Amino acid sequence: MKQTRAFKAPLAAAVSATLMATLLPLSPATAATEVTARTEVAAGTEVNAQAVTVDSAVQIATKKIQRDPSKTDVFVNKSYPLSPKKYAPKTVAVKGTNVRLQPSAASAYSKMVKAAAKDGVKIRAVSGYRSYARQAELYNYYSRIYGQSYASRISAVPGTSEHQTGLAIDVGNNNSQCGLQACFANTPVGKWVAKNGHKYGFILRYPKGQESVTGYSYEPWHFRYLGTTLAKSYKNSGAKTLEAYYGVAKSKSNNNSDKKSKGTAKTTANLNMRTGAGTNNRIVLTIPRGKSVQLTGSKKSGWYEVRYSSKTGWVSGTYLSNISMPSTPKKKESSKDSKSKSTNSKTATTTANLNMRTGAGTGNRIILTIPQGKKVSITGAKKSGWYPVKYSGKSGWASAKYLR
Ligand SMILES: [Zn+2]
Predict the structure, then answer these.
(1) Residues 222 and 287 grouped into a single domain
(2) Residues 224 and 89 in one domain
(3) Ligand 1 center to 118 CA (angstroms)
(4) Domain containing residue 235: CATH number
């Protein structure tokens, strides 16, 4: 579809408005839709009607991201911290334990424990609500031991932990088998809760292989209470993470480029944000007129990539004013790219079964052992005789002595 600046036939607008009223009697976005048809799509009733249909589908598909921490469906991760940061919910002790949860989560949990017991599986509550102060203690403790970067993978920065909502619980086996370890997934409780948790409103929040999306290593013991309706909807959606379910899942590299704002602009109309540069791409949402959007620095055939309301997508530059974009973003991007390319291209072979550790030195924790004769990527500069390396999807440090 081509983009037409002028809206030619005023009659078509009237017709399309009528069409919309018929097609979308309940849509809250009727006004936005109408202008959308005018601003973006070539005039003509048929095309307008099509645009309306797409809009209505999007209205349904777009899921609201709950930021109110008192709501059961509040969305919390590293990019969506609790607000207020030190939020403290009302909690109660889970029956027969001193683990605390919000009342709704606590009673759902007890129901789940009962159901599991009927199947001969005994769930133990390990950790539930943690206050901001307690989370700060934990995080600082891990940072001291492992360094900040590794600590962030296994523990939340205070104010970003689901445990602070009182809606997350870590579970274990009665005999503590594989407690808080990946092998917990294969224990009776690990298997049972992964399979049945959603029936009681709990979902596995940090699944295997999704670290780049969730920001956390695999935690088969960490379950998040969402209420049964949302938990079932999540399970049925087939989404691998809550981030994917809400459409905010991004790869790490995308996240980095999105976070850095490369300028701002203002919308001069109710403007569709689309998945790509051009009207043939799916609408993500409609940005109201007069709103400020962040520019990511990418521009393509008159379209700009923007961030608005925690979403990223493309909008037509025709309906942006006050565009302030530094003239150097292209250069920055390419220098970043070439840097990562040159560091990524270095490889080495292990001359022994070699430990990969969380830091440069034998005082650091072992992540895994790389067998002798394997190829590893060197991802950065040498530090006191150690290289940052990547192997089998993991990153860590290895002694240069045993790398060729
Ligand atoms: Zn947890």
Answers:
(1) no
(2) yes
(3) 25
(4) 3.30.1380.10
Q: In this predicted structure, which of 53-62, 191-200, 363-372, 386-395 has the lowest mean pLDDT?
A: 53-62
Is 380 found in the same domain as 270? no
Residues 189-214 have pLDDT tens digits of 999 999 999 999 999 999 999 999 99
Known active-site residue 34: no
Q: 67 C-alpha to center of ligand 1: Å?
A: 20
Structural domain range at position 182:
11-26+65-245
pTM metric for this prediction: 0.51
Q: What own/partner pairs with CB < 8 Å and gap ≥ 24 does 9-17 have?
A: 9/43, 9/44, 12/43, 12/44, 12/45, 12/48, 13/37, 13/38, 15/45, 15/48, 16/45, 16/48, 16/49, 16/52
Q: How confident is the model at residue 338 (pLDDT cuts 50, 70, 90)?
A: very low
Residue type, 33: T
CA distance 182 to 208: 9
Nearest Cα neighbor of 185 from 224, 235, 223 is 223
Residue 279 sits in the same domain as residue 194: no
In the reported structure, the alpha carbon of residue 132 is separated from the centroid of ligand 1 by a whole-number distance in angstroms of: 14
Domain membership flag for residue 56: no
Query: 347 and 283 in one domain?
Result: no
- Tell me the two tokens of residue 140: 């600082």
Q: CATH code at 320?
A: 2.30.30.40
Number of domains the chain contains: 3
Compute, in angstroms, the gap from residue 204 CA to the centroid of ligand 1: 10
Q: Where are the alpha helices (DSSP H) in 267-400?
A: 329-344
Q: Tell me how far the alpha carbon of residue 220 lies from the centroid of ligand 1, in angstroms.
A: 9
The neighbouring-strand residues paired with 356 are 368
**pLDDT score at 221:** 98
| CA 172 – ligand 1 centroid, Å | 11
Q: Is the pLDDT of residue 178 over 50?
A: yes
Q: How far apart are CA 229 and CA 215, in angstroms?
A: 25
124 inside domain: yes
Active-site annotation holder among 34, 162, 219, 243: 219
Whether residues 297 and 348 fall in one domain: no
357 C-alpha vs ligand 1 centroid, how far in Å?
24
Structure-block tokens of residue 61: 């598909």
> Distance from the CA of 164 to the center of ligand 1, in angstroms?
10
| Residue 87 shares a structural domain with residue 212 | yes
Same-domain status, 172 and 301: no
The pLDDT confidence band at residue 366, using thresholds 50, 70 and 90, is confident
Residue 79, token pair as written in the block: 């990019």
